[in-house]
Amino acid sequence: MSDIILSVKELALAVKNDVSERFIVKWINFDVPRYSMFSLVGGSGSGKTTVGLAIQKLFSPGVYQTSGNITFDNHKISDFKNERMRQIRGKQIGMIFQEPLETFNPVFTVGSQIEEVFKAHTDLNRAQRKIKAYEFINLVGFEEPKRIYNSYPFELSGGMRQRAMIAQAICLNPKLIIADEPTSNLDVTLQAKIMELFVKLKQELGLTIILISHDLGLISKFSDYVAVMREGRIVETGRCEDVLHNPKHEYSKRLMQAIKI
Question: Which terminus, N or C, of the chain has the lesser number of Cβ atoms within 10 Å?
Fold first, then answer.
């Protein structure tokens, strides 16, 4: 088994409209070691979220891949058709989005939406799906799982919704989780708790996590590896402590100086 669970080679993405075409991700390369927390960091518009979505072939309208290969768990998924990618998404690669309220359907309870994942990807019956939903609600640290199971998303606080979305993302025991700015809408105390939960789940479930963030302070405390993006390019990558404490690229240096790590 390879020690690299995800390898991105010469990936380029472009967006096209009626008038022009422009590259938004420019021939990037990075490897994600298995069981690590790997961070994609950069300012707004740097392309980090676009890369996270492209790994799963989830493209915004007009965006498409022009070159490059993506290999996940020794499979070249960049060649997979939509049907095969649907088998990968959720089951082997989980996604945690920035805003849970935009991800959860407001008219269904949290528990029923976690159960829906099992309904789509497993042969479990209704009773078994409910048991599994409770199991993962418990796993992410809720003290009152029954209340959370029966709650609608808008009835939960921001931190609770984020935990519920994590439960939904990990319930099929995926090998890789992509978390897109999962703490940006939370206060500092809740940010630390969510990140500590990620570390706990990484260790207990054998997860690999790609964290997409602009928060270098948070990354410095929890990530193993980091890639710094600017204007669609990766300008520096390596072990977190090396890049953050001894940056080589001028843009990385400016980022570190801004937060004084």
Answer: N
Give the full edge-to-edge strand order of the sheet including 63-72. 21-33, 4-16, 63-72, 75-76
C-alpha span between 233 and 9 (Å, rounded): 12
| pLDDT tens-digit series, residues 172-194 | 999 999 999 988 878 888 888 99
Q: pTM for the complete prediction?
A: 0.92
Torsion angle of the four alpha carbons 237, 238, 239, 245, in this order, in degrees rounded to the nearest 10? -60
Give the span between the Cα atoms of 50 and 46, in whole angstroms.
9
Residue-level pLDDT at 5: 97
Using alpha carbons, select from 48, 42, 204 the residue that is nearest to residue 135.
Answer: 204
Q: State the angle between helix axes of 110-121 and 126-139 in degrees (0 to 180), rounded to the nearest 10.
A: 120
**Helix, strand, coil share (%) of the chain residues, nearest 5:** 45, 30, 30
Q: Is the pLDDT of residue 80 over 90?
A: yes
Question: How far are the Cα atoms of 10, 126, 181, 232, 261 from residue 198, in angstroms, in the given order?
Answer: 29, 28, 13, 27, 22
Among residues 226, 221, 192, the alpha carbon closest in space to that of 210 is found at 226
Tracing tokens 């829906």 back to the chain, one arrives at 116
Euclidean distance between CA atoms 178 and 97, whole angstroms: 8
Edge-to-edge strands of the sheet including 233-239? 93-96, 176-180, 208-213, 37-42, 225-230, 233-239
